[in-house]
Amino acid sequence: MSIDLDHIQQVFEEADCLYTREEVDGAIRRMASEITEVLADKNPLVFAVMNGGLVFCGKLLTHLHFPLESSYVHATRYRNTTSGGDLEWKVPPAHELKDRTILITDDILDEGHTLAAIVDYCREAGAKEVMTAVMVDKLHDRKAKPGQKSDFTGLECEDRYIFGYGMDYQGYWRNAPGIYALKGH
Ligand SMILES: O=P(O)(O)OC[C@H]1O[C@H](OP(=O)(O)OP(=O)(O)O)[C@H](O)[C@@H]1O
Ligand SMILES: Nc1nc2[nH]cnc2c(=O)[nH]1
């Protein structure tokens, strides 16, 4: 399928900016101090969930000033579409997880299936403690587990399809410098 770059450009121009770069960065700094209080002496292993978690995790890591290891996992459920399907593991964790404290970082907690599956995987692999941090929690009543929350949450957003700061629209605009909502979604 060929991609219509005029459409991609138009999507950005018509989108609503929900959070500016400054607002997102402020939320990430606040999360970093909350995470530091809980994990600073636990030698955690911090995973970015690719692709969407790349920007958030990268920014967050630079605000965590204590010993930790960082790596990534790649799991996807949306595959460049705007509604979710079955979780596909593209790259499972490469580290030994037994007895480790794990922090999983992702861009968005939407229905929560992705994060729940990754948490379950880490627990089954023998992790001592598994915590999660998400940049944005989308507010609606379709969570995989009723009342599901992340241990650390940066921002909340309404029930619309969003992109920017790592999150894509049809594979594009992960580089958008804030969090934007698609017109009409
Ligand atoms: O809470 P959920 O409804 O499970 O959705 C959240 C997940 O969806 C997105 O990933 P996606 O599958 O789109 O892959 P991507 O990270 O490569 O964009 C996002 O990065 C989260 O990992
Ligand atoms: N880009 C993007 N990915 C998602 N994955 C789950 N929800 C969303 C969303 O609103 N935007």
UniProtKB/TrEMBL annotation:
Keywords: Glycosyltransferase, Transferase
GO MF term list: glycosyltransferase activity
Name of this chain's protein: Hypoxanthine-guanine phosphoribosyltransferase
InterPro entries: HGPRT (IPR050408), PRTase-like (IPR029057), PRTase_dom (IPR000836)
Domain of life: Bacteria
UniProt xrefs under Pfam families: Pribosyltran
EC numbers, comma separated: 2.4.2.8
Catalytic activity: IMP + diphosphate = hypoxanthine + 5-phospho-alpha-D-ribose 1-diphosphate; GMP + diphosphate = guanine + 5-phospho-alpha-D-ribose 1-diphosphate
Annotated Phosphoribosyltransferase domain residues: 26-169
